[in-house]
Amino acid sequence: MKDKVNVDFYLGRRLNEQIGIKELLDSISAAPSLLPWPTEKIILILDEFSKLLLDKKNSLHQRYPDSGLPYIAAWCRKSNITQVLENSFGSIQALDQYNTRVNGIIKSYRAFPRGLAVHWMAGNVPTIGFLSLIQGLLTKNRNIIKAPSSSSDTLLADLLDHLSTVGCDNTYCGKNLTQSIAVIRYDHSRTKVGEALSNQADIRIFWGSDQSVAKLKSLPAKLSSTDIIFSNKTSFMVIDHSTLKTGNLQKIAKQAAIDISVFEQKACASPHTLFLETTEDEDLDTFAHLLLQALGNTLKIIPKRTPSSKESSAILNLRTQYDMFHKAWYSDGLEFTILSDTDMKFGPPVGNRTMFIRKIDNLEKIADILPDNIQTVGILAELSRFDTLTALFAEKGVQRFAKIGTMTHFEIPWDGYFLPQYLVRWVSRQ
After folding, report:
1. What are phi and psi of 238, to 5 degrees?
2. Predicted confidence (pLDDT) at residue 105 exceeds the cutoff of 80
């Protein structure tokens, strides 16, 4: 039938079937509500799920060796999730009961789920998109994930299948928690299916390129629906002169290698360019050699996936060009590449652990070339410069500053959103 979609996960179980989109929407709408669940019970289930993912004997590590499973596990820990909710709502109790505040008039407030959250996942880093689903669960919404139709990767469904196996008792268990979740696929050309999905969404969450998000955003939607957009972003690193001269450069290179290696630079928070505040070639050469060694060592803990033929060709062409006209350092294979020239610009997002390193005599000059899609700046600078640079870059649109080595850690806010706040509707009573 024309309205059928491929379903990977549905009503608490792994699946590989086709289901009509209307039947699927009706079933998810009729699934038991999470509203009566104490938030603490959801947190405990996710914490058990975290422990399950951290077990190196788990088959998912063999099936998806470079998908960031430890990253998901760390994010789902009780301590992290509790902090996320407290940062967003002040207290996790806001999701369970009315809480009184006195602002001249005594009123109490409670956060209720908005209803159905539909997540359109990006094809490059589905792991990051999984974290919006977790927040959809924590805020007690029903959730449908539209997975990329072009990919054979079933990581999202397999993660939910594992989540469905954990729990603290017969009522509050992973099986019941995942009853109101579906993971589906359909070709983007099937506009009628996309319209049916969009028309039922109370929250539309888009992950992807500017072009794909713009097309999805044009789908008809409820007047009351909320759109949350995570489109094309890029990130970079800066190290000030003082840190270059007095910092532990070997440690810094090790931290930078982690940011470069995680997700093969496919995430918006992945750096592609490093600006060193110096006029001396020796400073750049020294750091490049340290980074080369660090990237080699990082391969032992973050395995490298094999680049596609197109990606391989792009890397080899860049290496040849920079060997001839500029500077290049790289592995014997296509594991990692460091390139340097005298251009005052951001390196293209080649990915596959390809990094551009450039000298600059004053980091403040970067503000003159900042594009409007910078998400994260990994920054190491003495305190006074840190204050100056973060104020200057933030004014130009940068959304997040992180210590080098933690750039890809999913934090709240993300892309300027305290995401859980957008997944609830507030009810007040006097």
Report:
1. -135, 145
2. no
- Examine the pLDDT at 220 and tell me if it is beyond 80: yes
For residue 13, what are its two tokens? 């179980």
The 10s digit of each residue's pLDDT in 19-32 is 999 999 999 999 99
At residue 53, what are phi and psi to the nearest 5 degrees?
-70, -30
Residues 6 or more apart whose Cβ sits within 8 Å of residue 406: 259, 378
How far apart are the C-alpha atoms of 178 and 139, rounded to whole Å?
13
Among 195, 136, 188, CA closest to 160: 136
In angstroms, how far is the first alpha carbon of the chain from the final one? 51
Helices (H), 64-139: 69-75, 78-89, 126-138
Q: What is the mean pLDDT of residues 204-213?
A: 92
Strand ranges, E, within 30-186: 99-103, 105-113, 116-120, 142-146, 181-185
Which one, of 219, 7, 203, lies nearest residue 113 by Cα? Answer: 203
CB atoms inside a 10 Å sphere around CB 357: 23
In sequence order, which ranges of 299-368 are alpha helices (DSSP H)? 309-325
